[in-house]
Design a protein that fits this description.
By secondary structure, the protein is mainly beta. It contains no helices and 9 strands. The protein has a 5-stranded antiparallel β-sheet, with no helix packed on it. A hairpin with a 2-residue loop joins strand 2 and strand 3.
């Protein structure tokens, strides 16, 4: 999955890390941190918004996510993603997207 590189210039001086209080999300070769509805990653001395480029359907995902399914919930823009098997899943039409 390709991600967009967009510097989060309004991030301020907050540094994410194990004790920052934001949910860490494993994403390929790095960690993203869920903060204010965005996923942030450290990159070259600043924080980027780490967002998927395009729509990626998660094939063969039969598990139904909901408030009590046991997977961590992360607010992402106008919806909630569920952390599952190293992916973020978001409901989309009649399937789940892989964020």
């Amino acid at each position: 999955m390709t991600t967009l590189h967009q510097e989060h210039s309004e991030h301020g001086t907050h540094s994410h890390g194990p004790d920052c209080g934001h949910t860490a999300v494993r994403h390929d070769d790095h960690l993203d941190y869920a903060h204010d509805g965005h996923l942030h990653r450290e990159h070259a001395g600043h924080w980027d918004e780490c967002e998927p480029a395009g729509h990626t359907r998660h094939a063969d995902h039969e598990h139904e996510h909901h408030d009590e399914c046991g997977h961590a919930r992360v607010r992402h823009g106008d919806h909630v993603d569920y952390l599952h098997d190293g992916h973020r899943h978001a409901a989309h039409d009649d399937h789940w997207d892989d964020h």
